[in-house]
Amino acid sequence: MLERPGIRKPKRIDITSLDAGGKMPPQAVDFEEAILGAIMLEKEALKDAMETLQAKHFYSDKHQNIYECMLDLYNENQPVDILTVTEKLKVKGFLDIVGGPYYIAKLTSKVSSAANLQYHAHIVIQKFIQRELIRISGNTISEAYDDSADAFKLLDSTEKDLYEVKNDGMKRSYKEISNIINEAISLIEANVAKKDGLTGVPSGIRNLDNITAGWQKSDLIILAARPGMGKTALALTMLRNAAVDFQKPVAIFSLEMSATQLVTRLIASESGLSSEKLKKGQLEEHEWAQLHSKIQKLAKAKIFIDDTPSLPVFELKAKCRRLHSKHNIEMIVIDYLQLMRGDESGNKNGNREQEIGYISRSLKGLAKELNIPIIALAQLSRDVEKRGGDKKPQLSDLRESGSIEQDADMVGFIWRPEYYKLNEGFDGDPNQGEVIIAKHRNGPTGEAKVRYIAHLAKFENWDEDGYMGGGDEGYSNVVTYSSKINTEGEETPGGKIDMYQLGKSIQNQTEPENKDNGDDWMNDTGANITEDDNTPWE
Question: DSSP string of 257-269?
């Protein structure tokens, strides 16, 4: 039993003292023997075992060696039986270590068939998890006694380890190329059946998906623009398209706007009712009916909203892991990157560029850890405004851009000529815009032409004939799609959304009396609205 530390506490403790009175680590050696014996008795048993068991799950070192030899034989397309396993152990120099041919033959006497293999494997994995929990707890206790340890980093590290035990305990920590090649071929074969060419999470915007093939797993995507250009509107459009039209569970972390404001934007986009009417609640009876009819789809989507302000990185990662574990989230949007905090402890020793670099590296690591795309919105510097010509953004325009560009797998910019009053040279259409893919680590760059509907604050597919209509295979004929969000009363990271109260909050939003002419102002809920009532939300 651990003694209560005195006044002079050591910085480190002996983790072996966690044995609680000399108890042995959790183990199930008899079940391990039964599993190995069953594999050598029945041809298909190893395939069943490989679905869950890794060599590290075995407590006994010699059982780990035997299982690894069995996997080697399988990868070499060789039979797995007493003779072949014995020979493989001899070739690798492990035969005497595991107990010789007698021990291998003895294993088959422990079981008569592989009928209970999955149950036995479950017991072995359970014991492995218990051992891992002891290890992680011991390391955490040891580090926690260190006065120089950063408590928040330790918390993040511990939670990450626990997440890996829960979610990755049945996956290989490393893979041989022979197995990876088989997986890659299977993925290619699966992609052949996708006639629309979308291999990732679709944005629902045809020209953009033609460049990206959808947002790819483990990618960090930076979507940047000047304030008022429409980055939040584009993010929400892509979020609802993925959730509604392609049934993908998605999440958004809004550090700038409240959950109600975001949903209000989605309602405006979904219902086709102008932001001005929703803001003032000036709806005709048929428009109320239209509103309630349209939001039925919106209310059923798997969209999760968290509006925690000034969110630190370690807290974001913890929330994302829980969302992924509980709801199998397939895409995450962060609005926006520069509003995040890198260090909960408030350490101000580093400069802002270093902090942003830490945030971007953390987001890339999280995307890889969860194996999902993460889209982080970002602000562009004022350098864009100082340039002449068409003022299209460049990678160097990213604010505090040092490592953002380096860490991102893809960097996109939003550009609308109307923003700079350049319509004359672009067919005079105020609705046109472009999503410029300036960096694409695993594919082509390019410019995707889009349509921006100002009074609804949403983006749509661009039709060269000037109207929205049917399109490419894999997309519905209606180019901007109907939407959905969390079901009424369903708990989300940002709280519960009540559709009735949401409607009342929209109706009660009013314009502040002290609005400054010519400047952006904030409505009573904090949403960014421009002076012109017909000018959209960003």
Answer: S-HHHHHHHHHHH
Residues 6+ apart with CB under 8 A from 313: 340, 341, 342, 343, 358, 359, 362, 363
| Residue 225, H or E segment | strand 220-225
- List the one residue out of 456, 501, 423 whose CA is nearest residue 274: 456
Ranking 85-99, 280-294, 494-508 by mean pLDDT, the lowest is 494-508
Q: What element of type H or E holds 378?
A: strand 374-379
Dmax (CA) for the chain in angstroms is 91
DSSP designation for 479: S
158, 141 in Cβ contact below 8 A?
A: no
Quick check: 497 and 485 in contact, CB under 8 A?
Answer: yes
Question: In 3D, which of 402, 352, 399 has the Cα closest to residue 378?
Answer: 399
Write the single-letter amino acid at 529: I
**Residue written as tokens 């029945």?**
42
CA–CA separation, 453 vs 274, rounded Å? Answer: 10
Q: Residue 482 carries which DSSP code?
A: P
**Three-class secondary structure assignment of 153-220:** HHHHHHHHHHHHHHHHCCCCCCCCHHHHHHHHHHHHHHHHCCCCCCCCECCCCHHHHHHHCCECCCCE
Q: Do 426 and 440 meet the contact criterion of CB atoms below 8 Å apart? A: no
| Token pair in block for residue 324 | 């992924």
Is-contact 134 159, C-beta < 8 A?
Answer: no
What is the pTM for the complete model shown? 0.59
Per the DSSP assignment, residues forming a β-bridge with 496 are 491
Sequence-separated (6 or more) residues with CB below 8 Å from residue 486:
299, 301, 302, 303, 304, 305, 492, 497
> Could you list the active site residues?
256
Q: What is the pLDDT of residue 376?
A: 92
In angstroms, the CA 206 to CA 343 distance is 39
Whether the CB-CB separation of 69 and 82 falls below 8 Å is answered with no
Amino acid at 327: H
Pair 475, 481: CB distance under 8 Å: no
Tell me the C-alpha distance between 13 and 143, whole Å: 9
The tokens for 175 are 């893979």
Pairing state between β 250-254 and 303-306: parallel
Contact 160, 174 (CB under 8 A): no
pLDDT in tens, 338-349: 888 876 544 455
Task: Measure the CA–CA gap between 204 and 240, rounded to whole angstroms.
Answer: 9
Domains of the chain: 29-168 (1.10.860.10), 204-508 (3.40.50.300)
User: 316: buried, middle or exposed (CB in 10 Å: 19+, 13-18, 0-12)?
Assistant: buried
What residues contact 181, with CB distance under 8 A and at least 6 apart? none
pLDDT-based confidence at residue 271 (cuts at 50, 70, 90): confident
